[in-house]
Write a structure and sequence with these properties.
The termini are far apart. Helices cover about 40% and strands about 25% of the residues. It is globular and about 60 Å long. It folds into two domains: about 260 residues, FAD/NAD(P)-binding domain; about 120 residues, D-Amino Acid Oxidase, Chain A, domain 2 (2-Layer Sandwich). By secondary structure, it is α+β, with helices and mostly antiparallel strands. About 45% of the residues are buried. InterPro entries: FAD-bd, FAD/NAD-bd_sf, Flavin-dep_Halogenase_NPB. This is Fumarate reductase/succinate dehydrogenase flavoprotein domain protein. GO terms for molecular function: FAD binding.
């Protein structure tokens, strides 16, 4: 670490968003310190990567390392509806993988170190201000507390949403998908499809917001998640183990069949109220990226992809703000770019949950199929002029209008 503790950029958190932001900032000649509270490797959920994420990884020069790590290749996503009906397949158009996040995140951190990002293990406890401007952070290690100065402080703390909790960013607000609880664990000896489909993601759902994921994360291990409404969780389950058992018995017969001889190899965990947004998420001397400002229903695995893309794009805004002394123009441009892409994804997910059968039909519509596949692959930030986003958005607006009319009439 620099002895004077002054950096162009200080990043809170070294997950995919933080690592990519650090790498891109170093490419632009900026000094970067990343402060991470956990020692790596460490467990993290979010194990299925989109095609867009796969391209970013390849561009980083990590293709061979991903193959050496034996991360399963992901060719697509199989979505299976109630009673194993309403099934459709989402192909992946670019090379990508399923990952064990403990190993994957460590790989990204090592790549950031290669680029000259400096790391400090510690817990960020506060922000430093000069009036309304954020100028650094205070962090705590085993040796005590220390201040570090920054030209830009980046919140990549994920669902910790550090700058929101400190009152710098806006308050965390629940979104449409918020009243759910996800319970998850890792298993071995899960029955898989025959190759080459054996390493694809499988999504099974019974009705709105009642679903599960099966993600092969190694040659022998699968991640299982069960997502159910919060009221149901506390009424009938009240623990991640019970919620997983409930999912086995109620979401799909296919789920129970595949896990008939499976052995759980890691403790069950749960995550509640996991869909939210934060506004504002940029300001004088600071910005938030990835899950630190927004997280959507994880059914289509956008989290890592969006975090990495925002890490890359935020570095452009950071470099411009430091070079020009004007934070508003680049930071507001980053905000608008992020909000537009995130909203396209949110509309797509809501459309699926409201009209799952019609969503399957859209997957077969020759006029929309390619666009829908690419949106599901993570291209929500790169779809200017496409028809599908407007179709989903207009359908959601009409649905919300009718819901409001019904509410007023009652």
């Amino acid at each position: 670490m620099n002895t004077n503790a002054n950096y162009d950029v200080v990043i809170i958190g070294s997950g995919p968003a933080g690592s990519l932001c650090g790498i891109e900032c170093r490419k632009k000649g900026l000094s970067v310190l990343c402060i991470e509270k956990d020692e790596f490797p460490r467990f993290h959920i979010g194990e299925s990567l989109t095609g867009n994420a796969g391209q970013i990884i390849t561009d980083l020069g990590l293709y061979d390392k991903m193959e050496e790590a034996e991360f399963p290749n992901k060719l697509g996503v199989n979505v299976i509806g109630s009673l194993s009906k309403n099934e459709f397949f989402i192909p992946i158009l670019a090379k990508t993988w399923q990952v064990r996040r403990s190993s994957f995140d460590k790989m990204l951190k090592e790549k950031a170190l290669e680029h000259g990002v400096e790391y400090q293990t510690g817990m960020v406890t506060d922000v430093l201000r000069d009036g309304e401007k954020v100028v650094g952070a205070t962090y705590k290690t085993a040796a005590g507390s220390q201040n570090v100065n920054s030209k830009v402080l980046v919140d990549a703390s994920g669902q910790t949403t550090f700058l929101s909790r400190k009152g710098v960013a806006g308050k965390r607000k629940v979104e449409f998908f918020s009243q759910q609880i996800a319970s998850f664990a890792h298993f071995e000896n899960v029955e898989r499809d025959l190759p080459p489909f054996s390493t694809n993601t499988t999504i099974l759902y019974s009705k709105q917001y009642h679903w599960s994921w099966i993600i092969p994360i190694s040659p022998t291990t699968d991640s299982l998640g069960v997502v159910i409404p919060k009221d149901l969780y506390y009424k009938e389950c009240n623990s991640p183990e019970a919620a997983i058992e409930w999912g086995m018995n109620n979401i799909s017969p296919e789920l129970k069949r595949r896990f008939k001889n499976a052995e759980q190899v890691e403790a069950s965990q749960s995550m509640a109220d996991f869909s939210y947004r934060i506004e504002p998420f940029v300001g004088d001397g600071w910005l938030c990226i990835g899950d630190s400002h927004r997280f959507l229903d994880p059914i289509f695995s956008y989290g890592v992809s969006f975090g990495m893309k925002e890490g890359i794009r935020s570095a452009e805004a950071i470099a411009t703000s430091i070079q020009t002394g004007d934070w508003k123009t680049p930071f507001y441009a980053f905000r608008d770019w992020s909000n537009k892409g995130q909203q396209i994804a949110a509309d797509l997910i809501r459309y699926f949950w409201i009209y799952p059968i019609f969503f399957g039909y859209q997957m077969q519509n020759p006029d929309l199929r390619d666009e829908v596949i690419r949106l599901l692959g993570g291209c929500c930030f790169d779809c200017e002029g496409w028809k599908a986003p407007s179709i989903f958005s207009n359908a959601i607006k009409e649905y919300d209008r009718k819901q409001m009319e019904t509410k007023i009439a009652s």
